[in-house]
Design goal:
CATH topology of the largest domain: Helix Hairpins
Number of strands: 5
Radius of gyration: 22 Å
Order of helices and strands: HHEEEHEE
Structural class: alpha+beta
CATH class of the largest domain: Mainly Alpha
Oligomer: single chain
Strand content: 15-25%
């Protein structure tokens, strides 16, 4: 089952890291860059190059975290209106026909995928197979170790 509390905790953690990057880490990196730029010839200034690299890495992490936060917020767990078709934010029940195992997932963007936590990413084998389908549909899932049919029992 989906643990909404886990999603809320993850959202808080992502927000905290974004805040830390924006208000502490990136300003420090920019300050380091300015300090090292004052040392003269930038072509032979390893500290300056390191500061630039740190800024680029910090900004890349910030963009990645902002995308993740948008995905977490965009899941709209409280506001999700079912269309009857599997999409991001859908809660699905799947019956694996090879094992008769019933699986419960919420369909999420790839960055949030974690099947052990009930989050099925859209870029995985099962996630991509059920995307756009509806309850009652049977899909063929091909993995490197085994192929199987899966029936979509319900979509909410």
């Amino acid at each position: 089952m989906i643990d909404v509390k886990e999603i809320e905790i993850e959202t808080r953690e992502v927000k905290a890291r974004i805040d830390e990057l924006k208000n502490t880490i990136l300003p420090q990196y920019r300050q380091d860059k300015s300090k090292h730029a004052e040392q003269g010839d930038l072509r032979e200034n390893a500290e300056y190059d390191n500061a630039i690299s740190n800024i680029q890495k910090g900004e890349a992490e910030l963009v990645s975290l902002q995308n993740k936060l948008e995905a977490l917020n965009g899941m709209g767990l409280d506001e999700y209106v079912s269309t009857g078709y599997v999409g991001i934010g859908s809660t699905v029940v799947i019956l694996r026909q090879d094992t008769s195992q019933t699986l419960h997932f919420i369909v999420v963007v790839p960055e949030l995928g974690d099947a052990s936590k009930g989050r099925l990413p859209t870029n995985g084998k099962l996630g991509s197979a059920i995307l756009g389908k509806q309850a009652g549909d049977v899909v063929w899932v091909q993995t490197s170790s085994r192929n199987y049919y899966a029936k979509i029992v319900s979509v909410h």
